[in-house]
Design goal:
The protein contains 9 helices and 5 strands; from the N terminus they run βαβαααβαβαααβα. The protein is an alpha/beta fold. The termini are close together. Bound molecules: adenosine-5'-diphosphate. Monomer.
């Protein structure tokens, strides 16, 4: 399966992606995780991305797309993947379509995690990541509304909407039930 997960920051995409990846047998590709790994290793890409991430802004599309392109070229992504946090702009979605077109394939579905703003703020403050201060969280939400939410229209024919409140297990059950309907 080739899936994209979309939802506001703190929607629990990463948590669900880790479980789904195991159940579906496809790699979990998180652009946030890839950036954080590059920052940790001090690579040129990490150094370039850090200031954007620390402020809660998007890393420029060209940098992000190149990183995803090389990750999708790895062997384990040949038969499917779960993209978590990418695409985050309509421009990135167009680039993804181009990349997949070159590989002769398309997305199976776009899973939208639907959750209220109160719940996401609560979850993010609990997780305490470096970019999870209140001011940066607020900016990430603003960026989501402006840059990423338009993807929901862009992908309207592929969206599978999941109510993302409740326990991790409940949300996973709902997601698996919806994905099983696609088969
Ligand atoms: P969250 O879902 O909580 O926003 P992520 O780990 O997905 O956390 O992303 C953290 C940060 O990494 C984002 O705020 C952004 O700066 C950067 N980032 C992640 N994915 C992308 C992307 N597709 N395009 C641009 N920047 C990205």
């Amino acid at each position: 399966m080739r899936l994209v997960l979309v939802g506001p920051p703190g929607a629990g995409k990463g948590t669900q992606a880790a479980i789904l990846s195991e159940k579906l047998g496809v790699p979990h590709i998180s652009t946030g995780d890839l950036f954080r790994a590059n920052i940790g290793e001090g690579t040129p890409l990490g150094i370039e991305a850090k200031s954007y991430i620390d402020a809660g802004n998007l890393v420029p599309d060209d940098v992000t797309v190149r990183m995803v392109e090389s990750r999708l070229a790895e062997d384990d992504a040949k038969n499917g993947f779960l993209l978590d946090g990418f695409p985050r702009t309509v421009g990135q979605a167009d680039e993804l379509e181009r990349l997949l077109g070159n590989l002769g394939t398309t997305l199976d579905a776009v899973v939208q995690f639907d959750v209220s703003e109160d719940v996401v703020v609560e979850r993010m403050l609990a997780r305490g990541r470096a970019d999870d201060t209140e001011e940066v969280i607020r900016n990430r939400m603003h960026v989501y509304d402006n840059e990423t939410a338009p993807l929901l229209d862009h992908y309207s024919d592929k969206i599978v909407k999941i109510a993302a409140e409740g326990t991790v297990e409940e949300i996973n059950d709902r997601t698996m039930a919806e994905l099983n309907k696609l088969k």
